[in-house]
User: Which sequence fits this backbone?
């Protein structure tokens, strides 16, 4: 079966997409024709950047320029990277990165410009964080550092997607201007991931939980998983969950502004997966010794309920009620958590 050469690169990109994330690649494929390729390439460029940032085997002296110049690298035909660590999940993506570059250069200029601008900001933000994390014994100190780090790795993705959606004409140009609520879309997802990945990150010596939060309960982040610290660990977890819950009203406001059905589903599905995960994590001591994941059956049920804002509001209302049921009056955050959940109820 003869495949015209220019199609081969695009097919390979979508193969990478399905390798890097199972459920998500199906959602990208459903996007309207004129933004599907732009979002697919945006996702793969970000995965390339993330693979470099995550790779602890790359010395900071080499990693920093790679991160800061990645927005220029994506214009370099033929560029590839073979120095990823052997166990890097997406190392093959960087080995064959010239294919992503080829497809990037086929995108309309208006989409290329969005991808370059976000990659530039994200790469520099990641480099700033990697540099100070390498010499400072601790990376994320205050809640402000936490929000800034999550802005670089996830909030900017929200801004970039909003610019792609509005540049395509499928969504209002206003979407590119509401950077605060686009940012919240990313922060909600990333903060849920950071809570979920506590034990895996700690074993890779990656510490994203802000010291301002855990130092209220323990002397070191690793103490939370130790026997005898169960109450402190559960109460510290509540603070992290509360911090993430506060982005939900913005996320619902953002979703409510979307007009295109395929864009709505693309944005809504990760949000409902996140609220389901966050609810499962709340009061769940297993977070300190395993990766807590929602069941496949629940995921499929959720994905089917993502066609309009009323269904999404119902899903969020369902989960905030579960959180309120799990809430414990002895928890120092008891009141704040019930108020954060109340705000979601009111929004709906
Ligand atoms: C860090 C992150 C949250 C931004 C990663 N991120 C996402 O998490 C993916 C979902 C994903 O990759 N899920 C994986 C599992 C997982 O990694 O947890 C799956 O297999 O289902 O969704 C986001 C994403 C999708 C839709 C709207 C968004 C708005 C703002 C910010 C991010 C948005 C994403 C969109 C793009 Cl274009 C690029 C990356 C992402």
Assistant:
């Amino acid at each position: 079966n003869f495949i015209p050469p220019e199609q081969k690169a695009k097919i390979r990109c979508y193969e990478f997409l399905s390798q890097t994330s199972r459920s998500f690649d199906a959602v990208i494929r459903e996007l309207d024709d004129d933004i599907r390729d732009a979002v697919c390439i945006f996702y793969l460029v970000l995965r390339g950047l993330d693979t470099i940032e995550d790779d602890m085997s790359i010395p900071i002296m080499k990693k920093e320029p790679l991160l800061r110049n990645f927005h220029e690298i994506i214009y370099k035909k033929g560029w590839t990277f073979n120095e990823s660590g052997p166990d890097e999940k997406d190392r093959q993506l960087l080995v064959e990165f010239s294919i992503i570059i080829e497809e990037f250069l086929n995108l309309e200029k208006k989409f290329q410009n969005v991808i370059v601008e976000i990659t530039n900001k994200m790469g520099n933000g990641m480099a700033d964080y990697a540099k100070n994390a390498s010499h400072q014994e601790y990376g994320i100190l205050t809640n402000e550092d936490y929000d800034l780090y999550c802005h670089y790795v996830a909030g900017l993705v929200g801004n970039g997607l909003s610019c792609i959606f509005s540049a395509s004409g499928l969504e209002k140009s206003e979407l590119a201007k509401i950077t605060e609520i686009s940012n919240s879309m990313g922060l909600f997802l990333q903060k849920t991931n950071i809570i979920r990945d506590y034990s895996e990150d700690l074993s890779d010596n990656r510490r994203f939980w802000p010291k301002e939060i855990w130092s209220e309960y323990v002397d070191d982040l690793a103490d939370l998983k130790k026997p005898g610290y169960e109450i402190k660990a559960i109460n510290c977890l509540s603070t992290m969950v509360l911090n993430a819950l506060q982005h939900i009203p913005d996320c619902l406001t953002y979703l409510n502004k979307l007009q295109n059905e395929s864009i709505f589903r693309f944005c809504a599905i990760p949000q409902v997966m996140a609220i389901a995960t966050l609810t499962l994590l709340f009061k769940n001591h297993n977070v300190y010794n395993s990766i807590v994941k929602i069941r496949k059956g629940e995921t499929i049920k959720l994905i089917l309920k993502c066609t309009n804002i009323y269904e999404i509001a119902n899903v969020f209302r369902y989960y905030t009620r579960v959180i309120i049921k799990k809430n414990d009056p002895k928890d120092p955050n008891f009141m704040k958590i019930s108020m954060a959940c109340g705000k979601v109820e009111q929004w709906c």
About this structure: The mean pLDDT is 94. Residues 114 and 160 are 6 Å apart (CA to CA). The radius of gyration is 20 Å. The pocket of IN0 is lined by residues 21-24, 39, 42-43, 46, 153-154, 157-158, 161, 185-186, 189-190, 193, 266-267, 270 (CB under 6 Å).
